[in-house]
Design brief:
about 200 residues; alpha/beta; six-stranded mixed β-sheet
Length: about 200
């Protein structure tokens, strides 16, 4: 008679969060099925930026699929239903909006033969949602905000990155849900996701 290997816990003790081994197994299967769209951490070459995180962000290839798999209707998303897994703050709608923006920016980046990444310092005090990098090392930094208006606090990390990259930063943009594109007095561009295109 064959002995079965010991069963591993699918969740962490005392929690409903999946164990790391469970998460990795699901991530690998979703990647093999081309359903997971990883955004690698941006490796800054020749830059004063140090102590950057190395982990990729993961989005499902279609944010609508994520909403459906979570059983979230349009009304539930608008009402703020759904809790993101992990330490992230915000609503599930905000995370799905970021996934949709990532998908749209990725299409534009590929059309321009640029690469897409994200930036996060290891201690988490600075994060830029998307970093588009041309082959000459020039950078477009993008923050994604589920809001119709952009406030000064929404541009903090973009200004931080600009202070470190100098002329390598081509532009900095906030993608939001507002009605029109414009440039803020501080030079940051604001572009509604509905107007984004190659």
């Amino acid at each position: 008679m064959q002995r079965r290997p010991p069963r591993r816990r699918a969740t962490l003790p005392g929690s409903d969060k999946p164990a790391r081994t469970t998460g990795v197994a699901y991530r690998d299967v979703l990647t093999q099925l081309w359903l997971l769209d990883p955004v690698p951490a941006w490796g800054v070459v020749g830059s004063p930026l140090t102590r950057l995180g190395q982990a990729s962000k993961h989005h499902l290839a279609d944010p609508a699929l994520a909403g459906r798999l979570l059983g979230l209707s349009v009304d539930a998303l608008i009402d703020g239903a759904g809790e993101p897994l992990g330490p992230q703050a915000g609503t599930m709608l905000g995370h799905l909006f970021e996934s949709l923006a990532t998908l749209c920016v990725r299409v534009c980046a590929q059309a321009a033969e640029a690469t897409l990444g994200h930036l996060r310092t290891r201690n988490g005090d600075h994060e830029v949602d998307l970093v588009v990098v041309r082959d000459d090392g020039s950078v477009l930094a993008v923050e994604v905000k589920l809001a119709a208006t952009v406030e000064d606090r929404d541009t903090t990390h973009l200004h931080w990155l600009a202070s470190h990259l100098g002329p390598r930063l081509l532009d900095a943009v906030v993608i939001n849900t507002g009605p029109q594109a414009y440039r803020r007095p501080d030079g940051i561009g604001v572009v509604p996701l509905a107007l984004l295109g190659p």
